């Protein structure tokens, strides 16, 4: 589990295919940036742009993860070198500054608008139709591993558009600063919303 509070901006420095098969995954070498790895062991989880990955090798300032083709097909930002948001797995001794995040990307959104508004930035994201029902006013959403609050939801024919306010601190300490209209982003919906949907569905079946 994670909180969606990015601990550091790292960088994918190399990508190596794990085989010659077109369906083979890749091994990513990631420079950890300001993320301390002293307490990270092989097999531990680190969220990379919101996707939970397992550490397979580490040095004092870098680590490696193996990413399956399935994960590559369902995410963005893990198939090329560049900056990524990093967060180590949550421990019971830490503050839950964001919200409960599983590190499982539910789908890809598309940036519809990204521009400064006063001292902050406004970020609008078009979500996939199958995820639209999970977003609510003042609810939580994870965008590229960052826990954010939804300021408004506008339903449409092709999903919904969520609007988010990014404060200067968030812009400074995450890779969201690099977004632009048309960019694809990793989305994870609120964990509680999924369970509520499941409970309501089973209650409806039981009532028949």
Secondary structure: elements and pairs:
Elements (H helix, E strand, L loop, with lengths): L7 E10 L8 E6 L13 E4 L2 E8 L3 E6 L1 H6 L7 E7 L18 E11 L2 E7 L13 E4 L2 E11 L2 E8 L1 H6 L10 E6 L1 H16 L2
Antiparallel strand pairs: 1-2, 1-6, 2-5, 3-4, 3-6, 4-5, 7-8, 7-12, 8-11, 9-10, 9-12, 10-11
Description:
By secondary structure, this protein is mainly β. The protein has two domains: 8-88, Elongation Factor Tu (Ef-tu), domain 3 (Beta Barrel); 107-198, Elongation Factor Tu (Ef-tu), domain 3, CATH 2.40.30.20. It is 13% helix and 42% strand.
Summarize the structure.
The chain has helices at 69-74, 168-173, 191-206; strands spanning 8-17, 26-31, 45-48, 51-58, 62-67, 82-88, 107-117, 120-126, 140-143, 146-156, 159-166, 184-189.
Question: What attributes characterize this protein structure?
Answer:
208 residues, Elongation Factor Tu (Ef-tu), domain 3, 2 domains, 12 strands, 13% helix, 42% strand, globular
CATH architecture of the largest domain: Beta Barrel
The biggest beta sheet reads: 6 strands, antiparallel, barrel
CATH class of the largest domain: Mainly Beta
Query: Largest sheet, order of strands side by side?
Result: 1-2-5-4-3-6
Stretches where pLDDT is under 50 for at least 5 consecutive residues are none
Helix content: 10-25%
What's the number of structural domains?
Answer: 2
Label the structural class.
mainly beta
Q: What string gives the helices and strands in order?
A: EEEEEHEEEEEEHEH
Write down how many β-strands occur, each being a DSSP E stretch of 2 or more residues: 12
- Mean pLDDT, to the nearest integer, reads 95
Question: And the CATH topology of the largest domain?
Answer: Elongation Factor Tu (Ef-tu), domain 3
Q: N- to C-terminal separation? A: 36 Å
Shape: globular
- Portion in beta strands: 35-45%
Question: How many distinct helices?
Answer: 3
Computed Rg: 18 Å
């Amino acid at each position: 589990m994670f909180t969606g509070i990015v601990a550091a901006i790292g960088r994918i420095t190399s990508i190596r295919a794990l085989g010659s098969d077109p369906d083979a995954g890749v091994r990513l070498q990631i420079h950890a940036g300001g993320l301390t790895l002293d307490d990270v062991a092989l097999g531990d989880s680190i969220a990379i742009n919101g996707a939970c990955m397992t550490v397979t090798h580490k040095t004092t300032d870098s680590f490696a993860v193996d990413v399956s083709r399935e994960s590559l097909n369902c995410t963005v930002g893990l198939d090329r070198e560049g900056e990524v948001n990093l967060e180590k797995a949550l421990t019971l001794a830490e503050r839950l500054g964001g919200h409960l995040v599983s590190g499982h990307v539910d789908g890809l959104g598309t940036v519809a608008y990204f521009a400064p508004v006063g001292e902050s930035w406004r970020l609008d994201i078009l979500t996939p139709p199958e995820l639209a029902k999970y977003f609510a006013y003042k609810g939580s959403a994870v965008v590229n591993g960052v826990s954010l609050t939804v300021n408004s939801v506008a339903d449409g024919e092709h999903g919904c558009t969520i609007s988010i306010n990014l404060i200067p601190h968030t812009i400074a300490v995450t890779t969201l600063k690099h977004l632009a209209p048309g960019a694809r982003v990793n989305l994870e919906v609120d964990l509680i919303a999924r369970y509520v949907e499941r409970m309501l569905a089973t209650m409806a079946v039981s009532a028949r």
